[in-house]
Amino acid sequence: MSFPPIPSKIGKKGALIDIDGNKQHFIILDEVTHVQSTYPRKVICLQRLRFESDCHTELRLAYYIIGKKPKMAGKWVWGQYATMMPVEDFQTIISKATEKGWI
Known about the structure:
By secondary structure, the protein is mainly beta. The chain has one helix spanning 87-99; strands spanning 13-17, 23-35, 42-51, 57-66, 76-78. It contains 1 helix and 5 strands.
């Protein structure tokens, strides 16, 4: 089965509510992706974020998965749970981030 292109969020803005209840805004500066070796319907994504409040950067580890429900069937869907992956895939993501100078 062929899958659609992996979505890119580079340049997109996002927000979250921090532990103190404050809304924090950020922009996605860059990202690295890797198709999980044991499950090709999942793409591991490491994003580099810059927060608008004080311009600090953080990394976000996440994933996309091919949707199964009718509305999103066959499309990449943002994962909503903590991701698990083989050690080798994690090493690949870290290597890609290191090559970009993030780490």
